[in-house]
Amino acid sequence: MSSTEIQKKSITSNLTTQILIAMVLGAILGVVIHNSISAEAALSFSNKVKILATVFIRLVQMIIAPLVFTTLVVGIAKLGNVSAVGRIGGKALGWFFTASLISLLLGMFFVNVLEPGVGLNLSNVDLTSGSEVVAKTQSISFENFIEHIVPKSIFEALATNEILQIVVFSIFFGLAAASIGDYVKPVVTALDKMSHIILKMVNYVMNFAPIGVFGAIAGVFAVRDFQELAITYFKFFGSFLIGISSLWVVLILVGYIFLKSRMTVLLKRIVSPLIIAFGTTSSEAVFPKLTEELERFGVKDKIVSFMLPLGYSFNLDGSMMYMTFASIFIAQAYGIDLDLGTQMTMLLVLMLTSKGIAGVPRASLVVVAATCGMFDIPIEGIALILPIDHFCDMFRSATNVLGNALATSVVGQWEENNEIDIVSLD
Q1: What is the pTM assigned to this prediction?
Q2: 118: left (phi over 0), alpha (psi -120 to 50) or beta
Q3: Residue of 113, 92, 94 lying closest to 102 (CA atoms)
Q4: Where are the alpha helices (DSSP H) in 260-298?
């Protein structure tokens, strides 16, 4: 191991430690504030301290669009031809949809077995609290999804961090560049150098991660009575944790099947991104850091730059599991019996409508509300899960990161083996 690698490993370890300390300190401060001042003052404190998390996430969002564009274009150009893009893209989409289906089925299984919504008392729930989420559901439909895929302006997509639209434009741009050949090498080289500059910016931005995590955790605990939440939502949250833990077991086992002993190395590499996603409830916040860690793990940069942007649009395993779980939970709470056929139809609807919503605030809740409306389940029931949603979001964001890291690593290994096979045939 070189001195540079040792230094990078030390920096990553220190960052992870700092983030863990920030989470503990944030929780302690939030609990102290919640128990020592009035509710109005605590809310004011929460709004102010959350600015730390907002600033960190905005710093990350600042570099996501140019990073996705430059790395994806360079990655496709380096692949060299349309057949290679189609081969890797086919493997990627096959993995993504299989993982999504498994995640959805796990959510459906555990919510039906554990029945967390059965017998729930709705008398003390403020059903108007979900109005903000309900208002967003009108934009979730199959037609809008199709329209949303294609950008009408790449500049608008870049400005609003529409990852799926940036991916579509970048694929066309990259394929065009690859088809022209040597003539566009200066452009590809320039974009490659730009991507390295942006990745260097990642190191600077990640120094703010502990501060952002501290602000996010302190802000939540300042306005939430954790003991009351734990008692009131014990069954829902406990059931959800069982489901999400099972999904982690499945993902890690699959990782060991394909990556064998290297899976342990991968898990060590992504500890820091996992903790940041957990603390900030944003898998998007670790996109640049995850890119860097996967390349250090040994996945070729052209695979990482192609897979990760696609994964952030099509492979949100934790969110998928949560959406079936939450949708059926709301139905159970209202005493609505959904037969197996209806639940399978709901699963397919979620499979489609959940794609392309990366970066949308409370995206999972918006999709859950829209799905409930399609199946005559009271949409205002979304208010049932709002108080506990932040804590669920911590786990599903970390799961999304694990799922994308695993998908990228496995496809990267497949391609490496494919290249070895081609060389041996020659």
Answers
A1: 0.77
A2: beta
A3: 94
A4: 262-269, 271-280, 287-297
